[in-house]
Amino acid sequence: MTYEMMAVFWGVLLACVDWGWGQENLTLDGDVRDFAISDRSVYVVTDDRLYQLDHDFTKVIKRDTPNVVYPNQEVPHSDETYPFKVNILLPFIKNKTLITCGTTKCGYCEILDLNEISKSVHSENIEVGSLDPGDSTIGFIVDLGTNSYIMTGRLQSRVRKACANSDQLLALRNTLEGQHGGIFSDSDVSTTPYIDARQKEKFQFVDGFQSNSYIYVFSNVPQERQVRVIWFKSENSKTNTLRYFQGATLKCCGNTERRELLSSSVIQGSGGLHGQVLWAGVFTAGNTSDPINTVLAIYNISSTGPQLKYNDPDFCYKGCAEALPTGTTQDGTTQDLHPETVVFKYSSMTSVLAVRHNSWLVFFIGTGDGQLIKLAVDKAYKPACPRVLYNSDDDRRVFPKMHLDPVDRKHVYMALRNQMVRVPVAQCSEHKSLKDCWSAQDPFCGWCESRCSFQDDCLQPSAWISISEDSQQQNMVSYQVEKSSSGERITLTVKVHLNVNETGSLTFTCNFFSKRGDLCDRTSPAPAFPQCSCLFSSDQLPAEGLDVTVKIRVGKQNFAEKLMLTNCSDITGPPTSALCSQCMTAGCSWSNDVCSWTTRSANSDPIQDVCRLSQSGLNYSEPVIFSIEPSVLSFHGRNHALMNGENLDHVTKVRIQGHMNCSLKESPVWNHTGSSLTFHIPSGDKGSVSVCAVLPDGRCLGKATVTYGSSPSCTGLTPSTTWASGKRKIKVHGSHLEFVEEVVHDHTPQTIQTKYSSGTLWYHTPPFEHINQPVTSTVSLRVANQTLACSSQLTYHPDPEFTSYTAIKTGNDMRVTIEKRADKLNITTEEILVFGVQEENQDVECVMDTIETSNETDSVICEIKNTPNFNINSLRIRVGNFTKMLLPKQAAPSLLIILVLIPIIIVVIVGAVLYSYNKQRKMAAQMNKQLDQLECDIRNDIRQGFVDMQTEKCDLIENVGAIPFLDYKHFASRIFFPDGGPVMTSCIKDIGQDAVKVQPDESCQALSRLIRDQVFLTSFVHALEEQKNFNVKEKCAVASLLTVSLHGDLPYLTQVMEELLRALMEQPSNSQPKLMLRRTESIVEKLLTNWMSICLYGFLRESVGQPLFLLVCALTQQMSKGPVDSVTEKALYTLNEDWLLWQAQDFSPMRLQVLFAVGTDGEVSEPLEVSALDCDTVEQVKEKILLTFKTKFGFPYNTPLRQMHIEYEKDGRFVPLKEVDASSGVLGEVTMLNTLKHYKVPDGASIKVLSKTHPSLSPQSSLKDDQNYSTKYFHLIDPDIDQDQKKNPERKKLKLKEVYLTKLLSTKVAVHSFVENLFRTIWGTPNLKTPPAIKYFFDFLDAQGESKRISDQDVLHIWKTNSLPLRFWVNILKNPQFVFDMEKTPPLDGCLSVIAQAFMDSFSLAEKQLGKHDPTNKLLYAKDISQYKQEVRAYYKQVRDQPPISSSEFKEFLHKESKKHENEFNESAALRELYKYMQLYFDEIKLKLDQNGAPVELKEQLQHVKSLFDSLKSCSWN
Prior knowledge:
This protein has 1518 residues and is an alpha+beta fold. Strand 8 and strand 9 form a beta hairpin.
C-alpha cells in the first residue's frame, strides 16, 4: 500500500466534546496515552485517535489512527492482529512537523503538518519505538551541532520474531530526508552507533532531555531495582556523541530507599554555581499504604567525574557481548548521586513539572487521586505551603507527563484518564488588596499599582511588588521593640517583607503616629529598605499599651500598619505556647520560658518555630489518641466524628494539620467523657493529615492520622419508585458511598439516616403527603455540610390500592388471595406484611407466597399456616409506613332475589321515562329562548371588546407636574427595612437632626472601629451565618444595620461586600454557578441589594424616576376608565388576569360638577369637572374628586378622604350620599354598597363637598375599618347565595371570563409607550456610559468568572441579571411607593407584577415556546420579549465594551455618595442594634476569629467593646 493510500484512513472532523469548566476541561472518547504541545496546538494521543487542539480547547480536530497493511505481504492470520498504538509523539518545531511513530507488525512512522494534522508529509514502515504496546519507549529531539536528531529508546520485541529487529536500546535517528541515510535512519557515515543494555527485561524509560550541550536519559533498570541516569556530550556526529557516556545511580532518600522513578522534570535555567543542572524526580518505595510512599527530590546532575568506557554495569556502546573482553564479568562501577534536598512527601505523587520564576522554584505535582498541587520553594530550598490548584471529584490518576503553556507560561496542561485539563498557574486577579496579594504567598503574583497581577501583565514592571525572596513570612510587616540599657528609650524596628522590582533608587519612607501625633524623636535613623526604626521615650508607653500606626511608602505604593505596643515586662504567666505567641506577636523576645525586651541578638525565627517548644506550666494529663472514627472520609469533611483515647477531659479543640504544618484548622469538641469526644472534621484536600488534641494551655498532644478521599457520587437508585407513605428500602448506586452521612429529598426538609454495609448504601424513603398522581423527588447525598444530587430521581406513586380478598381453607392452612389494582411500584413479597385479624383482635401472620401481575389487577397470595380453627374477619396489610385494613369480598346475591327485583326495576324505569319526556318538552321551549338571549349577550360583549381594542387610544397624560419623590433617607430606609418597624424609625434622623453631627458614645465608637476591621467583620458575618437558628429575616436585618453603620465609609463597605461575595462563590453549596445570587438568603446578598440602591439612587432620581411615575399614573388613569369592585378591588381594565373584573355589569361614564364648600355660610367654589362612572361607590367618587383636584391644582385638597362628605343636588336641595344607608340593597345577609346609579344621579349633576368638621355633620368611620368588610358588603360581584333570578335580571346575565380577556390587551395598548420608555431608560446607555456602580460591579463579576475558569457567557449573564435587574430594578418596578410619596393599591400592584415579569423575561436566556395553556401574564408581552432580549444583550455588551473604571475613580464616586448623605442616619442606633447580635453570638464570633487566625489585639478589642456595652447596662441598672 502506498503512503498516499495510507493517509486516506485518517479522517478529519470537528469533535463533539463535553466541556467541564468552560473551555479548559476537555473530555475525550478514550484514555490519554501521550500528549505534547507546540506554540500553537496541543496534540493528544488515545488508543484510536490523534487530536489537535488549540491552547484553550475551543477548536478540536480528530484524526483516526490507521489500520496499517504492508505491501507484498499476506494478510495476517485471523488470530494475529497488529493494532496501531502511537508511542512517539514529537513536535519538531524547527521543521514545523509532527513526528508520530507506533506499534504495528514491524513498526510505522508518519510525519504530519504541525499546524494541520490532516496533511501527511511522509510515512514509512520502520521500527523506531517498541513494538509491543506494553513496552517502554522514549523519544525526544536533540541538537548535534547544526543537525537535529531523535534520541529514541526502545525494547527488543519478545513476540514479533519475523521483524528485522536489532539489539539497539538507544539510538539517534534522522529527522530529515537530506541527512545521511535518509529520514529515520540511525546510521552514521561509517557505522551504526547505538547504546545497548545488559538486561532488557522489565526495563523502563522514564524521561530524557537535552540541557545545553548534554543529553540525559533516565530509566528504571531491573538489576537490584535502581534508578539510573546516563548522559552524553553532544558532539559533531552520532558516533562521537554515543561512544563516550557517563552514568550514575540515583539514590533516594534517607532511611527508606525508594528505588523507582515515576516522573521527572529538568529545572530550566538552573544556573547556580558552575552552570549546574538541577533536576527534580518523584521516587516511590512501592508501598501504596505508606502515607509518604512518594517523595519529590532535587538533584544536581551536572556532568562531573571520569568518563566511563565499556564498564557500566547496565549500559554499553554497541553490543554488550562485544564490549566485554574475554574473561571479564559484567560488573561495572557507577557513582551514586544523592539529592540536594527532599522538598515534598506524599502518598501518591505521579508526575511533576518544575518551573523557575525569579529566585523561586515552583513545582506542579500530579497525584494518583486526581489533584494538581503547586509547591513554591525558595532559593534556600525551603518549601512554602502547598496549594491545590485542581481537585477531581473521583480518583483519576494524573498522567506522568505535564507541560507548561509555552506561549503565556501561565497554564499547566495535564491529563487525567480521558480528560485534558488546562489549569492556571495562579489566580492573581482574585486578590483585591496589596495585603491579600502578599498573603497568597504566590511567586507568580505581585501588586501592580491597584491590582494583583502577573509580572508581565504589569504595565510598569518597576512598580511590581511581590513577596520577599527569602524564607516565607507570616506577616507582610513585622516589628520588634527594644529597650535601651538605661531603660529610658525604646526602639521600635519595623521590617517590610516585600520584593520591589525597582531599577533605580527606591522610594521608602515610614511615618510613626500615636494618638498624640508623631511618635519618633529626631534621633531616629533614616529608613533603609526593607527596615526602618523609631526611637521614643519609654514614658510614652503606658501600662495599658500604646496604639501605633505606621504609614509606609514603598515605591508608588502607600499602606498603613496598626501596631499595639506592650510593655514586655508585663507579659507574664505560666510558660505556655499561647503566652509565648502573645509575647512574640507584641514584638518582644522569648527565651528560657520568659518574655523580655528584645535584644540585638534576639532570635529571629518564626513565631511557630520558637513557641512550639514551650512547655506548659499547668498540670494537665497528656491526652492519648487511640483512634478516630471515621479515619477515612471525603474531602468535604465529616460531621460528628468520634475520637477515642484517654485523658481527653481537658481537650478544648481538635487541630487538623496538613502537609508541612500548613492548612491548620481547629474544630471545637463536645460530649467529653475522658475516653472519647465528638468533633467535626472540616473539609480539606485529598491526602493524609495529622490530628492532635489541644489543651487549654495551647499545647497540642496526641497523634492520629485522617485521610481525605474523593467525593461520593450517586449514579442510580434501586428501585426507582416508592409509595406516598414512604419507608421503602432504596439502594443507592455510585462510588465512595461509605462517606455519605445522610440522604435528603427535595420535597421535605428532614434528613434521612443511611445504612452502609458490605459496600451497599441504603435508606428508607420519607413520606410524600397529599399526592394523587406520580411526582418526582430529587435525591441528594449529605456529606458534612455539602449536598450532592443524584443523577437519577425517585418517582412517588400513590399508595398501593388493595381492594378485597378471599380466603380458602386448604387442610390445616388457609390460602389468602388479595386483590390489588395494578400500579408501577413493582412491589416484592419481601415488602408486604399481611396479618389475619379475628374478632378478638388476635393477629396471625400470613406468610407471603407470590405476587401475580396483570394489566388491571394484581393478586397477592399468602398462607396462614397450621390454623385449622382460625377464621379471619379482616386483613391488616402493611407496606412500609402504609397500613390498610381490608374486608373480604362480598358474596353474590341469590338467584331468587334477582328474579323478584327485575320486574320491579322495569316498571320504575318505564314510569320515569314517561314523566321525564313530558317535563323535558315543556323545558325545551324555555331553554331555546334563554339560549337565544345568551348568544345575543355574548355577541354584544365580544363586539364591544373588539371595538375597545380597535379604538383604544394612548390619550393618557404625558405631564403630571411635580413628581413627589421621597428624600434619600426615606427611600433608603424602605429598601433597607421593607417591613418598617421601630428599628427603621430609630435609624432615621428627624429633619431637624440632619444638619447636626452627634458624637456617638464611647461604646458605639469602639464598636464602629471594630467593624472597620475587615478580618473581624468577615469573621462576624460568617460566624452568624453558620448558626442554624439565625434565619433569613435576621440576616437581612444585620446586613441593613451594617449598611447604616458604614454608610459614611462606602469604599470600605464595598471592599467588605466583595470579600464576602468571593467567599459566597467559594462555598461548595454553590456548585451550580447559575443559581448564584438568585435569592436573598445571606447577609452579603442583602448587602448587595442595599449597595445597589445607594449607588443607583442618583440614576433613579435623574433618569428613571419620571418614566416610572408616568407609567404609574397611566395605569391608575386606565383602571379608572372602567369599573373597579370596591370590595375585591378587581378592575375591568388591568394587565393581570387574576385582578380582572370579568363579572362587571354594564356601566356608563359620567361628568360631575363638583362644588367645594368654603366657609360656614353655604358659599361654594367654582365647579370642578370630575369624570366618574355610574357604578362607582360613594367612596370611589370621593377618591376621584381628590385625584382630579390634585391633578388640576398641583397640590392635595386640604381635607382627607375620611373627613369628606358629599351631597347630590336634586330638585334644588342637597341629598347626602353614603356608602350604606336604609335604602341599600341586601342579598341574604350581605349589603350592597350604594352607587351613583343607586341614587339615580344623572350625568352632569352637581355634587357638593363638605368637611366632616362642618357643624351640621357628625363624624363617620369608614366601612373598610370593619374586619368583616369583605363578607358583610358587596359591590359589583354578587355574593355566592341562591336568589330569585327574576330580581335584577341584568345582574344575572351569564358572564364568560374569556370574553373579557381582550380588556387586558386594551390596557396593554394604552400604557405600552410608557412601558417601553421605562424599559429603555433602565437599560439605555446615554452618551454610551452606564452608571459607575453598574460598570464596576459587572467588571467584578467578569473577573470572578475568569478566576473561577468560567468562560460560559450564559453564567456571567445570569450573575449580572441576578445582581441588577432581579435584585434592584424589579424591586423598584413592583414597589413605586419606595420612590414616591404615594400609596400602592392592590389592582395597581397586579399590573406592576405583570410588567415586572415581562422585564425579567427580557433578561432570561431561556427560549420557551408559549402556547394556549400558558398564563395570560406571560402571553401578553410574548411578542415584545424577543425584541427586548436583543436590546438587553446589546446593553450588556455595551457595558462590557466600555473602558474599565479605575479603582481610584470609583472610590471617589463612593466618597461623594457618602458625603452627599452625611448625617442622615442615626449610626449609633444601628450600632446598638448590631451589638445585640454580637452579644447573642459572642462565643461563636470569638471561635470564628480563632479559626481565622485573627491577631490577639483584635480579640482584645472585641472584649473591650463588650465591656463598654456591659458597663452601659450596669449604669442603666444602677
